[in-house]
TrEMBL record:
Transmembrane segments: none annotated. It is found in: Nucleus. Keywords: DNA damage, DNA repair, Nucleus. It comes from Bactrocera dorsalis. Belongs to the DNA repair metallo-beta-lactamase (DRMBL) family. This is DNA cross-link repair protein SNM1. It holds the Pfam family DRMBL. It comes from the Eukaryota. One of its GO terms (biological process) is interstrand cross-link repair. Residues 139-235 form the DNA repair metallo-beta-lactamase domain.
């Protein structure tokens, strides 16, 4: 809780340590900032999305264009494994140095899976090694070697994975290896063609740590926010120009605008007059709260159990007037509990 704002961090499925932030204001409004993320169906199981309506999303729109629909990360990893096997089948006696392009942080899932599959030791540059050591991940620590001549895989800057750069890089290892097979894992590599030149071989793999167009659509459609704001500029040098989010993802002709009766605190709720409580309950939520059409144990997720009990109390007081409690499905009591009583005595 920071300045009356409830802040929740959830995994962004991007790189180690990457999180999305959800800010719940004192008014009940919820704002989601994804940061860099890759949307996944697993995110739909997050309890915070079940228990809260997201009003505004600040969305990572790196690959929002229709053309950016690519394979899942594990499909891309499997493709890299197939390429390695095929390379060995064609050149069974060739001693191969494997190279993987990466960032200081990022692509760990790709190269760790490949290294584990073929039992490869991994060497990487000092800045990346320091970052990896700070993560203290068992699956990474067990693979690392501090000697480049004792490691069959080198993880280097993805900017160095070009033909001329790799020619220079490979020179000190020529006595130990016959060829190099280098991977460029990136979402921008979807339609790239392999560069197979005998000694230096480069293969682009469509491996992304950002959401595809289809994944973004599913994520936004699931959350049904009132507003979506893109955060990735479409032009370099002007951060104010960002892609437009398709309104069909979150605006529907038959989608009723959600209305919240937010309860700021227990004490403020109890200070409300019974008739005022009944009037608040008799809005669009009347059908759900008083005469549920679902199973008897159904309770709307936007109303706390405490609120339902207190509301039922007020409705009981007003039984002879306009509203009547449904005793079978909403618990009703005879008197309002005084504010001074222990809350534990009258929680559902």
């Amino acid at each position: 809780m920071i300045n009356d704002v409830e802040v929740t961090a959830i995994d962004a499925n991007h790189c180690p340590g990457a999180v999305m932030f959800i800010f719940k204001l004192s008014t009940g409004r919820c704002i989601l900032h994804t940061g860099d993320f890759r949307a996944s169906p697993d995110m739909e199981s997050e309890p915070i999305f079940w228990n809260n309506d997201i009003d505004t999303i600040y969305l990572d729109t790196t690959y929002i264009a229709h053309k950016h629909n690519f394979a899942s990360q594990y499909e891309s990893i499997d493709r890299a494994k197939r390429i390695i096997r095929e390379f060995h089948e064609k050149r069974p006696t060739t001693r191969v140095l494997y190279v993987c392009g990466s960032y200081v942080i990022g692509k760990e899932r790709f190269w760790t899976n490949v290294a584990q599959e073929f039992n490869l030791k991994v060497w990487t540059e000092k800045n990346r090694l320091k970052a990896l050591q700070s993560m203290d991940l068992d699956e990474v620590r067990d693979l690392l070697s501090d000697d480049p001549h004792k490691a069959e895989m080198h993880v280097i800057s993805i900017a160095k994975v070009s033909y001329q750069s790799l020619v220079d890089y490979f020179r000190p290892f020529k006595q130990q290896y016959d060829a190099m097979l280098a991977f460029r894992p990136s979402g921008w590599e979807k339609n790239s063609k392999p560069q197979l030149r005998g000694e230096i071989n480069i293969v682009g793999i469509e491996y992304s740590e950002h959401s595809s167009h289809a994944e973004l659509e599913r994520f936004v459609t699931y959350l049904k926010p009132r507003e979506v704001i893109s955060t990735v500029p479409v032009r370099q040098g002007n951060p104010c120009i960002t892609p437009k989010i398709p309104e069909k993802w979150y605006k529907y002709d038959n989608l009723k605008k959600r209305q919240r009766n937010f309860q700021p605190s227990i004490t403020s709720f109890l200070k409300m007059r019974p008739r005022q409580l009944v009037q608040n309950a008799a809005t669009k939520r009347t059908t759900n709260c008083l005469t549920p059409t679902k199973s008897p144990d159904y309770m709307p997720n936007e109303i706390s159990q405490l609120s339902v009990r207190a509301m039922a109390t007020c409705i009981e007081v007003q039984r002879d007037n306009k509203y009547q409690a449904t005793s079978q499905k909403v618990p009703a009591v005879v008197t309002l509990f005084p504010e001074s009583e222990a809350l534990d005595d009258w929680m559902l």
